[in-house]
Amino acid sequence: MRVKIYLIIIHVVGWLLFMAFPLLFLNGGGQTTSAFLLLQSPWYWVFCFTYIFLFYINSYLFIPWLFLKKKYAGYALVVLLLYTGIYFLQPYDRLLRGPEPISALKQGRADFGQPGDHRLPPPDDGMPPGDRLQTPPGEGPPPYPGFPPHDVNGTGFHRPGVFFDSSSLFIFVMIMALGAAIKTIRQWQVTEQRALAAEADRASAELSFLKAQINPHFLFNTLNNIYTLAVIKDDHAPDSIMKLSNIMRYITDDAAQDFVPLQSELDCINDYIELQRLRLGDKTTVDMRISGDPEQKSIAPLILMTFIENVFKYGVSKHERSAIIIDISADENNILFFCKNSIFSENRQNTRDSIGIKNTKKRLEHLYPGKHSLIIVGENGLYTVKLSLQT
C-alpha cells in the first residue's frame, strides 16, 4: 500500500512539473498576468493532456501488449500512428501561436489574443506607422523571428503555413521513451524478484532434502549402538536411551530451524560422544575441548554433528587403538571447529565417500555463502577437518 501511494505521489509531482514548464518558459519576466492568461488558453490544456495521455496509453497498453511480447512491428506501427496524430495536432506550436498569442500576452496587449484574431503586435522600432517600410506580400524575411514564413498584407495578420514542428516531435519522443524505459525497468525488476524467489524456494527445498538425508543416517548409527548395548545387557543401556531421546528431540524440534544456539549443538555432540564411549570402551580415547562463549552464538543445526559422526564412523578400529581430538571454540566473530582421527585400512576407501560430508558441504554453501572455510585433509594416516564460520 505504501509503495502504491509513493508511486502516485511521484506521478502527480512529475506531471505538475511538466505542466509548469510552459508557464516558466513562455511567461517572460515572470509576469503573473500572462501566466494566468496562458492557463485560460484551451491549447495549454490540449498540450498537457495530449502528452499525459500518450505516456499512460504507451506505458500501460502498448508496451505490455506489444513491445514486451516482442510484437515489434505492431508496436512500431502504433508509434507511427500516434506520431501522425501529434504531427497534425501540433500541440506545442499551437500553444505558441494559438488563439491568444504568447507575444501579446507578454506585452499585456488587450487588442490581441481575442478568439479568431491572429494579428501579431507591430514591431517596437520607435517609428510612426506611416513611416514604416511596407513589405510586399510574399517578399522579405519574416518580421518576427521564431515564426514560420507567412504573408503580410499590410494589416498585420499572420497566416501560418504547414511546417515541421520539431518541438512537438522532441517531446513526443521523450514521453514515449520515458514510458518505455520505466515499464521495461519495472518488468526487469519483477523478473528479478521472481527469479530470486524461485532460487530461495529451490534452496529451501534442497536444504530440507539434505536434512532428511542426514537425520535417518545419523539415527541408524545411533540405534545400532544402543542395540549392541542391549544385546550384551550393559547396565548403561537406560542412560543411553535417555541420551538418544535428547538427541532425537534436538533433531526433530531444533533441527527444523535454519539456525539454533551453538550450545544446543554442543549438547547433542556431548550426548552422542557419551553413547559412543559406552560402545567403544577404553580402546578409543576422545579428547574434546570447548572454549569461548557458545551461549552467545548460533549455528546451522547438525553442521558440526555431521563431522563428529564421521569421526566415529571411520576413525575407530575394531582391532587397533585409536585417538580422536575435537576442539571447538567460539570467539567474537567466528566459530572454529577442528577434529583429527586416524585413518585405518578398512575405512580408508569409505572416508571420502561419506554422504553426510557431501551434504554438509552443500548446506554450508547455501547457509554461509562466502562466510565459511572448510579444509579436509587425509594424509599420513590422519584425517583432519578445519571449519571456520563467520557469525
Describe the structure in your own words:
The chain has 391 residues and is an alpha+beta fold. The chain has two domains: 2-132 and 139-189, no CATH class; 234-390, Heat Shock Protein 90 (2-Layer Sandwich), CATH 3.30.565. Helix content is 55%, strand content 12%. It contains eleven helices and seven strands. It has helices spanning 2-26, 32-40, 42-67, 72-89, 91-97, 102-107, 166-231, 237-252, 262-280, 303-314, 355-367; strands spanning 260-261, 284-292, 298-299, 322-330, 334-342, 372-379, 382-390. The strands form two sheets. A five-stranded mixed sheet has the order 2-4-5-7-6, covered by helices on one side. Strands 1-3 form a two-stranded antiparallel sheet. Helix 3 (42-67) crosses helix 7 (166-231) and helix 8 (237-252) packs antiparallel against helix 9 (262-280). The longest helix has 66 residues, at 166-231. The radius of gyration is 42 Å and the shape is rod-shaped.
Number of strands: 7
Mean pLDDT value: 76
Structural class: alpha+beta
Order of helices and strands: HHHHHHHHEHEEHEEHEE
| Helical residue percent band | 55-70%
Number of helices: 11
Strand content: 5-15%
Number of domains: 2
Q: CA-to-CA gap between the ends? A: 35 Å
Q: Strand order, biggest sheet?
A: 2-4-5-7-6
Shape: rod-shaped
List unreliable stretches of 5+ residues.
29-33, 99-121, 138-162
| Computed CA radius of gyration, to the nearest angstrom | 42 Å
Please describe the biggest sheet, giving its number of strands, its sense, and whether it closes into a barrel: 5 strands, mixed
